[in-house]
């Protein structure tokens, strides 16, 4: 039987509540094979004007968390526990009608693939104008003018003309800019970006990241930025939350997590990244094994089957006790604080350079 323990002497919360406050969130899906525990006991906060980067392998629960914030789940097959509070409004218990008023207005999302998120049957301008008209009561003329304005803000050349085009007439980078324009058209307080630069080349990716930072400065939005790329996180985020198998395993500011990571999974992510100054013939160092099935996750620490340091923990605590995240700067690991500092300094940091 697995028991739940707190680590580093702190409660499982994250400190003072932010503009977006998620507390002990659990999301389970009923499938033919059993119940998938997609998110399990997740807590975090995001402040206005700050960006939280959520990083982890595919299947770690990043996207599910943020789709749940938006209420984009099937209520017939999904069970949600915990709290999601946005600017004082509880979202878990909100009705679909209430969520429709919030989506695109107070909270908006930039999806990973704009080609599937944009309708091929309507012009880009119309698709940007419609949410603005719906939430503000603006006329068609006002909505169209707002769409052209937003296309200009995101750097689309000749926006008045390009607003009349269809998504297939835009390049990949331009479609992503159009998605950002659509997300920001109602000046949302919270923007969720789900791997918005994954399919773009490096130059366009840098332009999109700079654009998001500029628009955040202009609108003052809180941003949740989902990615598997720690390099993007380093450039984009103020704070980082590392997720593994549906739970958070480490949290802190960008400098704290990237300069002095405390969890073996974060060490593995950093160690598996290619470096520009490394020997090109040297093999990468992937994390051994695969993420666990969320139908039957491992007991204790969910990372223990892949962890190279579990033998440094006395007894079988890694197998029997599940470590949870403390507030603010913390990691969910049974290694002592001194062990974490020593292992990083002597074994991990020299590999990272």
Automatic annotation (TrEMBL):
SMART domains: AAA (SM00382). InterPro entries: AAA+_ATPase, ABC_Ni/Peptide_Import, ABC_transporter-like_ATP-bd, ABC_transporter-like_CS, Oligopep_ABC_C, P-loop_NTPase. One of its GO terms (cellular component) is plasma membrane. Pfam families: ABC_tran (PF00005), oligo_HPY (PF08352). Gene3D superfamilies: P-loop containing nucleotide triphosphate hydrolases. CDD domains: ABC_NikE_OppD_transporters (cd03257). Keywords: ATP-binding, Cell membrane, Membrane, Nucleotide-binding, Transport. It comes from the Bacteria. One of its GO terms (biological process) is peptide transport. GO terms for molecular function: ATP binding; ATP hydrolysis activity. SUPFAM superfamilies: P-loop containing nucleoside triphosphate hydrolases (SSF52540). PANTHER family: DIPEPTIDE TRANSPORT ATP-BINDING PROTEIN DPPD, OLIGOPEPTIDE TRANSPORT ATP-BINDING PROTEIN APPD. Belongs to the ABC transporter superfamily. This is Peptide ABC transporter ATP-binding protein. It comes from Streptomyces fumanus.
